[in-house]
Amino acid sequence: MNQVRLITAEDFADDCPVSLGLAMQLTRAEPDVLLDLLGDIPEATRANLAVWLYGRSHTRETGVRVAATCEGTSLRRAAGLLGNQLYDLSRRPYTTSSYGTHGGSRRQVSLGGSRGSDHAFA
Fold first, then answer.
1. Region Disordered: start and end of each range (predicted)?
2. Residue 19, CA distances (Å) to 22, 86, 110 in order
3. pLDDT of residue 102 exceeding 90
4. Is 79 part of a structural domain of the chain?
């Protein structure tokens, strides 16, 4: 007989370099609080954490912020070429994500069809 096991957050956190609780605190923290939370974490662990966070779409922004607290050599040791890219990205001026926002010049699309249309479809 097969047994069903519930999947929990811990199942996805096996390779997280810090405790899952701390990782969740970091992702919810305001930027100034984030720096305080990172203060006691060694740089090598912060670099691994930055890579781990950046690798997940919902924590990517936090990963960049954590990477900003690391030297380039630490990020390169943690992730090679990705570490280089993460270092460069973390040194750029912050811009908000455009994902999910509507641009002013974009035309809205309606799936309801045209209201004034008298066309019959065969």
1. 92-122
2. 5, 22, 45
3. no
4. yes
Question: Between the CA of residue 4 and those of 1, 7, 8, what are the distances in Å?
Answer: 10, 9, 13
Domain count across the chain = 1
Give this prediction's pTM. Answer: 0.70
pLDDT digits (tens, 9 = 90+) for 1-54: 567 766 566 666 678 999 989 999 999 999 889 999 999 999 999 999 999 999
| More confident site: 5 or 100 | 5
Residue 111 lies in a domain: no
Q: Is the dihedral of CA 78, 80, 82, 86 positive or negative?
A: positive
Of the candidates 83, 94, 48, 57, the one whose C-alpha atom is nearest the C-alpha of residue 38 is 48
Average pLDDT taken over every residue of the chain:
82
Domain of 25 in residue numbering reads as 9-90
64, 86 Cβ separation under 8 angstroms: yes
Task: Identify whether 120 is part of a domain.
Answer: no
Three-class secondary structure of residue 21 per DSSP = helix
CA dist 18 → 56, 58, 106 (Å): 15, 17, 42
